[in-house]
Amino acid sequence: MESFVYHLPASVSAERLGRQLPEESGLELRLDHQVGREGLLLDTFDGALYNSGKILFSFDEGLLLFDLHDGRVLEQAGPFAGTVIGDMVKGPVVDLLAELAPLRAPLPVASLRLRREEGRLVDDEGKTLVRFYQMMCGRGQGRMVGVGCSLPLRGYEEAGEVLRLALQRCGAVPCGDGKEMYEALKLSPPVYQAKPEIVLHGEAPVGDSALLLLRTFLQVARANEGGIVADSDSEFLHDYRVALRKIRSLLSLFAGVFDAAATDSLKGQLADLMRTTNGLRDLDVYLLRRGDYHALVPPSAHPGLKLLFDELLGRRHEEQRRVNLALTGKAYKRKMAALARTFSAGRGALKPGPLATEASRPFAARLILKRYRRVCKVARALDETTPDEGIHRLRIHCKKLRYLMEFFSSLFPPAEIKGVIRSLKQLQDCLGTFNDLSVQQNFLATLLASAHGGGARAVPLAYAVGALTAMLASLQARERGRVFDSLALFCGEDNRLIFAELFDSRQEDDEDTRLLQQ
Amino acid sequence: MKILACYSNKGGVGKTATAVNLAYQSALNGYRTLLCDLDPQGASGFYLRIKPPKPKAAREGESFADFAWIAGAIRASDYANLDLLPASAEYRNVDIFLSRLKNRRSRLKKLLRAAGEDYQVAILDCPPNVSLLSENVFKAADRVVVPVIPTTLSVRTLEQLYRFFRDQGYQRRKLLPFFSMVQHGKNLHRDTMVALQKEYKRLLKSYVPFSAEVEKMGIHRAPVAVFAGRDQVAAAYRELWREVEGRVKLDNDKGEDGH
Fold this sequence. Notes:
The structure holds two protein chains of two kinds.
Chain A: E1 4-8, H1 14-19, E2 28-43, H2 48-51, E3 54-59, E4 62-67, E5 73-77, H3 92-100, E6 107-122, E7 128-138, E8 145-152, H4 157-169, E9 173-174, H5 179-184, H6 206-223, H7 225-230, H8 235-253, H9 260-288, H10 290-296, H11 302-328, H12 330-343, H13 360-380, H14 388-407, H15 414-450, H16 458-490, H17 493-503, H18 505-517
Antiparallel strand pairs in A: 1-8, 1-9, 2-3, 2-6, 3-4, 4-5, 6-7, 7-8
Helix pairs in contact in A: 6-8, 6-12, 8-9, 9-11, 11-16, 13-14, 13-17, 14-15, 15-16
Chain B: E1 2-6, H1 15-28, E2 33-37, H2 43-47, H3 67-73, E3 75-76, E4 82-85, H4 94-103, H5 105-114, E5 121-125, H6 132-140, E6 143-148, H7 152-168, E7 175-179, H8 187-199, H9 212-215, H10 217-220, H11 224-227, H12 232-254
Parallel strand pairs in B: 1-5, 1-6, 2-4, 2-5, 6-7
Antiparallel strand pairs in B: 3-4
Helix pairs in contact in B: 1-12, 4-5, 4-6
């Protein structure tokens, strides 16, 4: 049963479509359902729906999702709440969205006139052979365009072919993504990428490459400001902070590429910027874990857990207000504009340092290899008795290595660099979980000390925090074992050879010399 | 997959109407349902507006016993979850098909799944006679739903059926008789129902009244619930399905042939 998913560049009446059916087929087209309404086209900020070939509409009665890969239509009653997908009322549409981007909130892309059409192809006895379904939409007074799907019923594939040809004669073209529809509606597809692909040139001076990276990360950070202030979902702040952290790491890691004094001052500014949102991000992380925490502790601790999260929600509200004030203030805007100038290629740019003119590729290879050896050295010094801080230090080194490899990934063979990044990511996941568990226990301890009120609230709150801390500690002990396992793999002989092969520039120089001498 | 047969050794008792309406109820309740029209007259297909497959559909060397042929002959009805295997001249080999149905049910299930379907319920609309075909039905089916008009003649045929089952060594517990085309105004109907309910403990409690709406299925060419959903006969089929479903589920619990 092959379905035909199509883009329709203009409305087609049932009569016109019906006229395209060959007379001898004895088939007749019936339009059963036609509803017009106002609605919205939705997508997440990072285009999770557009990028996966799905179109999401909302209107008064509910949500409707059209999957352009298989023509599936999912519907769900209830209004569009504008919250994070994970918090939306469960249903067929939300379940699918949750697989794509649970932490994102769908946001309006455009207001549309919508028209739903459902029809079928019947034979001379009134038996349905093919069903079709169209979602037409238009902006303002513009013409209606749409997406649709025709699906022959089992055993009626020939009739399915007849309708497909008729649709094509009316201008329908097969489609697998929303590109045609967005273009026809004069909408630009979502362009935001949390990790834009930055293509560097191996021969270019590393100073230029670094400025390009800095500019890009700053753009990513700035693109998220609106979403943070609107408080649509927590991923805006997350992406914002990752981008700023990358800027800061780059400035530290590329020692010598820029003027030392200028670098130090910038690092200070970045630290200040990050500090503004530290509290909000921490609270976001705990609130996102609400479900996990619930599952971790016995039901008797649930009332206390509710008090705990009420407390956190109250604090978050305050933090959000503070962050909004900071991000919309003049001082902040001036600071960001100054950073943009500093990272620009023109006048006023960051003063170069002694290494600024070195070619990017050898510079990258040297830094990556050095950092990898550092990770292995720190790892060798660890054993079962190492305190948590030791493992924390290793985590920081790994993060730096990861950033370096990601900054420069375009300079190395894609398959190989992806492979080593993947192996590092596995180790980082373990280290991250281990560290999170340790941070959470500390946080809970300080929270208990500083929680508002006492009396009736104090006992259940302390009980919940106690139960949670015990569970977190046992999870952390288990994670510790996993850290050592992945470490053995990451610093093992195989990986060391791969790193040497990919990043050891001396080997390459030898090869060049050998070729030149031939 | 559970196999339910609609069977009566007497004609005109509302057998096809039962098969079609039960199949519709099964599908409505979310079971992927295949209605198999084993009666060469093709009345089930007529009620669902599904034309019999063209003879060319069966190529040289293929027979009804070929599972691939079955998968290719299946047609979707206009209703969600309900497909039909239309009546066919190919049924001369139907006994082979049914013997396989019994012995290789798992294989049939696999093949139907391979054809893109995983039917949970198959309902067989059987011709009204005792033949090799009906005997195979008795072997293959999990339950045999038997419409009985509460008249002397129908009661006699039910007794014959039970005797036949006993003599041939078939499991009598498979038989699920129920009263069909009941006319409450008739003393004979009322008395017969009381008498039979005492005698046959497995007799279903729900019954289907005589109704002009059932006859109108031929005009509307649809299950009763589609065009007369509020009529008492539609309610009667809903109730009948619920009871049959309960009896079949009982087997599931015993793990006899879980799906």
